[in-house]
Structure formats: structure tokens, C-alpha cells
UniProtKB/TrEMBL annotation:
The keyword Disulfide bond does not apply. GO terms for molecular function: superoxide-generating NAD(P)H oxidase activity. It comes from the Eukaryota. Keywords: Electron transport, Ion transport, Membrane, Oxidoreductase, Transmembrane, Transmembrane helix, Transport. CDD domains: NOX_Duox_like_FAD_NADP. It holds the Pfam family NAD_binding_6. This is FAD-binding FR-type domain-containing protein.
Length: 575
């Protein structure tokens, strides 16, 4: 593969082996996962032994038996989950912490995964708690014979109706959060997720009805103490919400430019004072009150810290983004950048030419001089896995389709470093950028960025030599594009017919080599390991989960079995 050719280094026979590879690639997250599982097992055993042997519950155990022990033990585990559930949502606070020594210890990148895990556990133990109490209610009904139906007892007693409301809230929170539903119905997911406020209110009063009395005075507590389990994390979460609202609404964020890119992508540029300093790869939360007062949406910063403005790219795909495009002045979005313009490989396009294609698909500045631009509230920056790229001397940036967005700021920042601070040793010193996409229509704006980087490299500073003449092994940024679309015979013939420009690719207009088919990641990583022996290489991916699993598996396999002791450390985020 031409992109990764280089001088062959000294041959090595030692390998990392499975344990060292596991430690480098997956060690931290697996160790913390094992710690959490072990904590759950130990606490479950503790609660079972407590409610099985404690003299405080002798009479209750005699009446209900094991169903009481199961119900109370499950309740104890719900309390444990409640302690941790809100912590991963304090994103700004966690961003501050990940910039300290804790960033090397705690897996901050897996915060949302941990939140989901705790949520699943909460639902599981809640169901276990509920069904165990169904048995308890039935036994109590038979023994005490209250003279009312079992359904009345189940629904009217304080712990029962609060518990059922909590259970309904949990399902309203969990089901829309499933990936297949959330991606297509984000607004529904977001609004139903807010029912956690009702859940925590019911949780706070759930234990205040004194259904099960202690054997000795005082038989009942005057109030529930369940609030203490979420007090700390709740304070942090509410504090972050208050600070977000206060800081964003007191900081005027002025929009300076609105650029309409092909394929219905809008770039919003704003003054840099919208947030403080930030790192390439981080993202912000955006709120536009005229569109929705309550909704905050995450957008990756596509500007680099070296630029004098902030920018985000918004793809117009949903109700919120469509409303946003209209208040920004793009009323006739489909007419501004037509979606039905034939692409170069369209065999029915008899008027194919590169110039006509380029002119029709160019980005355009929108005239905002006569537009009453909306207030834009910005909260952040918020940390992401991609921001850690600067910890490595060599990085591999891999994007799948529209997952390319997090790498815009990184590539811009690296270009600024390489071009304007050549006396400072950059980190990373070598970047392999790999972009796999079905076709080029969804992310044409990013192609323009790559073309700009190549154009600047074509006129290099300090006599480094032209883009074409620099040996590939010495380039700071190697770009590789993979088109995975299956072409028809006529399209292939059309491609060959118009491949007259040897300096750039017919489809992408880039000088970098374009491959047709899916990337062979084991081969890619193997060749990179040959170029960078005895080195820990950062692999950063954003794209579909299935593709991420393939990349992670390949990185691990090559780390285990390469003769150059190169180690690939995998990071991922999903769009």
C-alpha cells in the first residue's frame, strides 16, 4: 500500500504478547469494569446477609420469608446505583477533572457507557424489588385479611403507588434511550428522559410511609432518608445546570458568519469569547431559545484554537436543525444547494466536467446583514476522547462517514503547528488520517478542508518541498480516503474516462490517494507498526459502532502479534 511505505526498520523478534497488549489496549476500562462488578457482588452479599441475620427484622422475616430479603437487598442495590447515576452527566465538571492527574486513572471517555450500565442495573433491581414485594403484599393480604381486594392494597398504599410511578418513569427513561430509537427520535428521547425529576421526587418519599415497622421504638422514622443517596451527585448536577444557564445567558455570543455548504450543512462562525480556552476535538452544547428554550444539542468545535473565531457545522437532518437553518436565513435550503446535482460518476450525466461540478457544489456565504440573528447560548467546552491525541507522537485518526467532524479541529490545529511553529517539536509528529465513506455527498464541506490543507502543503513554508515531492514517510499528515460504494460498470468506465488529471482524484478532488473498498485495518496497522517500532500509537475513531469494533479488534490483534513491539491504544466516540 503506497501510503504507508517507508524505510524498513531494524527487524525485531520480540512481541508484546497477549497480556501486555491487553494492558495497553483495554486494561484501564476492563480493570474499572471488574472493580464495579466486584463492588456489586460484595454489596449484594452484604445486603442479603444483613436482612437475613439482623435481629431488627426477625418478625418481618418470619412473616414474609425470602421475598422480604430479596426485596430489601434489591432496594439496597438501587440506593448504590442512585449514588453514581448522575455523576457521568456532570460533563463540564468531568472535563475539568480529566485535565488533572485523574485523567490518567479514571476512564472519563466511558462516562455515558457507565451511566447506561448503572441505568440498566437500576431497572433490573427495581423489577426484582417490585416482584419480591408483590409476594410480600400477597402474603400480608392472606394473613391480615384486610377486607379489601388485593389490587386495592397494591395500588393505594404509599410505597406501592410511589413505587409504580417510579417504575413507569424508569421505562419512559430507558426505552427511548435505546440506540435504534434514540437516533431517529431524539426529541422524544430527550423530553421523556426529563421524567427522572419525577422519579427522584417519588424516590425521596418512597420510604416515608412506615409500611414495615421496626420491632422496638421508635417504630417509624418521621420522614424518608432516601434523598441522601443522590444528594451529592444531585447537587453537582443541579449546580452544573444553574451555571450553564447563568453563564450562557449572560454571555452574548455574536454570530459573525453563516456559510451554507453542500449536502445541507450549515457552518456557524461566532466570536471566540463565547467560551474560554479549548482543545481540538472538544465539543460544546448549543441552545437557541427561539427554536427551543429547553433543548441543548452537542456540536463538535470545528475551528482550531489558533483561529480567531469559533465554528460548528450543523447538518440539517431533523426538526430542530431545520428550524435553526430558517432563523439563520436559509429559508430555501434545498434551492441554495441542490441535492439532485449529478455526481461525477453518474453515468447519465452527459455534461460531465470538473469545473461545472465544482461551481455547482461550492459553499456559499449567506447574507445575514438583513437577518435578525437569534440568541445563541453556548456551554462548554466539554471533553471528548479525541482531545487526547496530543499525548502521542504518532496518531491514527479514523472516520466513518459523517463521523469525520471531530477531526476537523485537530487537523486544522496540526496544520497551524506544522506551518507556523516549525521550531517547536509538534506532538504528534506523525498523523495518519483515514476516512471511510460510502460516497462523498454527505461530508463535502470536510473535503474542502482537506483540499485547503493540501493546497497549503503545495506551497510549503521554509523550503520543505512541495506536497507531491515530500517522501510519504516524511510527511506530517498522510491522508487516505476509502470509497466503499459499489460501482456499476458504466460508472467505472466513466471514472476511467475522466481520470485525466494525475494530480488529483476524480471523485474527491484530493491529491491524496483514494482507495475503492473497505480499509484492511490489520494490514494498515501492521504497516504502521513497522514504521513506528517500540512506540505507543494513539488510534482515534468516530463513526458507526460496527466499524469501531472491527478497528478495536484489529488494533488489539496487531498489538499482540507484531514483531516491532508497537502498541495501539484505541479511543472511540460515536455520533
Amino acid at each position: 500500500m503506497r501510503l504507508y511505505e517507508s524505510k524498513t526498520p531494524v527487524q525485531r523478534t520480540e512481541k508484546n504478547g497477549p497480556f501486555n497488549a491487553w494492558l495497553y489496549c483495554k486494561g484501564k476500562i476492563h480493570l474499572w469494569t471488574a472493580t464495579w462488578v466486584l463492588l456489586n457482588i460484595c454489596l449484594s452479599i452484604y445486603f442479603v446477609l444483613k436482612y437475613k441475620n439482623s435481629p431488627d427484622f426477625t418478625n418481618t422475616r418470619a412473616l414474609f420469608g425470602w421475598s422480604f430479603i430479596v426485596a430489601r437487598s434489591a432496594a439496597g442495590m438501587i440506593h448504590v446505583c442512585t449514588i453514581f447515576n448522575l455523576l457521568p452527566l456532570c460533563k463540564v465538571i468531568l472535563t475539568k477533572l480529566r485535565n488533572t492527574f485523574l485523567g490518567k486513572i479514571l476512564p472519563f471517555d466511558s462516562g455515558i457507557s457507565f451511566h447506561k450500565l448503572v441505568g440498566i442495573e437500576t431497572v433490573f433491581f427495581s423489577l426484582l424489588h417490585t416482584f419480591a414485594h408483590y409476594f410480600n403484599y400477597y402474603k400480608a393480604y392472606k394473613v391480615l385479611n384486610p377486607g379489601k381486594s388485593i389490587f386495592y392494597v397494591l395500588l393505594v398504599s404509599g410505597p406501592s403507588w410511589t413505587g409504580h410511578i417510579m417504575l413507569v418513569c424508569l421505562f419512559l427513561i430507558m426505552i427511548p434511550a435505546l440506540d435504534f430509537y434514540r437516533r431517529k427520535n431524539y426529541n422524544t428521547f430527550w423530553y421523556l428522559h426529563q421524567s427522572f425529576f419525577i422519579y427522584f421526587f417519588m424516590f425521596s418519599i418512597h420510604g416515608s410511609f412506615c409500611l414495615i415497622k421496626a420491632p422496638s421504638p421508635p417504630y417509624c422514622r418521621p420522614h424518608s432518608s432516601f434523598w441522601k443517596y443522590y444528594f451529592f451527585s444531585g447537587i453537582l448536577y443541579v449546580l452544573e445546570l444553574v451555571l450553564r444557564e447563568f453563564s450562557s445567558k449572560n454571555q452574548k455570543n455574536t454570530i459573525t458568519k453563516v456559510i451554507l455548504h453542500p449536502s445541507q450543512v450549515i457552518e456557524i462562525q461566532m466570536q471566540k469569547n463565547a467560551i474560554g480556552s479549548y482543545k481540538p476535538g472538544q465539543y460544546v452544547l448549543i441552545n437557541v431559545p427561539i427554536v427551543s428554550v429547553t433543548e441543548w444539542h452537542p456540536f463538535t468545535l470545528t475551528s482550531s484554537p489558533q483561529e480567531d473565531f469559533l465554528s460548528i457545522h450543523v447538518r440539517i437532518v431533523g426538526d430542530w436543525t431545520k428550524k435553526l437553518s430558517k432563523v439563520l436565513g436559509a429559508h430555501n435550503l434545498d434551492l441554495e444547494i441542490p441535492e439532485n446535482i449529478p455526481m461525477p460518476l453518474d453515468s447519465h450525466n452527459s455534461h460531465f466536467s470538473r469545473s461545472s461540478f465544482s461551481s455547482k457544489r461550492k459553499s456559499r456565504y449567506l447574507d445575514i446583514s438583513n437577518v435578525a440573528l437569534p440568541d445563541l447560548h453556548v456551554n462548554g467546552p466539554i471533553g471528548s476522547p479525541a482531545q487526547d491525541f496530543s499525548q502521542f507522537n504518532t496518531v491514527v485518526l479514523i472516520a466513518g462517514g459523517i463521523g469525520v467532524t471531530p477531526f476537523a479541529s485537530i487537523l486544522k490545529s496540526l496544520w497551524f503547528q506544522f506551518r507556523f511553529t516549525p521550531s517547536v517539536t509538534p506532538k504528534p509528529r506523525k498523523v495518519y488520517f483515514i476516512w471511510s465513506l460510502k460516497d462523498t455527498t454527505a461530508s463535502e464541506w470536510f473535503q474542502y478542508l482537506l483540499m485547503a490543507i493540501e493546497e497549503e502543503d503545495h506551497n510549503p513554508p521554509l523550503g520543505r518541498g512541495s506536497f507531491e515531492n515530500i517522501p510519504l514517510s516524511e510527511k506530517a499528515i498522510d491522508i487516505s480516503i476509502y470509497i466503499t460504494k459499489k460501482f456499476q460498470t458504466k460508472e467505472i468506465n466513466n471514472l476511467v474516462l475522466h481520470s485525466h488529471n494525475i494530480n488529483s482524484d476524480t471523485i474527491t478532488n484530493l491529491r491524496s490517494q483514494t482507495f475503492y473498498g473497505r480499509p484492511n485495518f490489520p494490514t494498515i496497522f501492521s504497516n504502521i507498526s513497522r514504521n513506528h517500532p517500540d512506540e505507543t500509537i494513539g488510534v482515534f475513531f468516530c463513526g458507526p459502532k460496527i466499524m469501531g469494533k472491527t478497528i478495536e479488534s484489529s488494533a488489539y490483534e496487531i498489538t499482540v502479534d507484531n514483531a516491532f513491539k508497537a502498541r495501539f491504544k484505541y479511543h472511540e466516540e460515536f455520533f
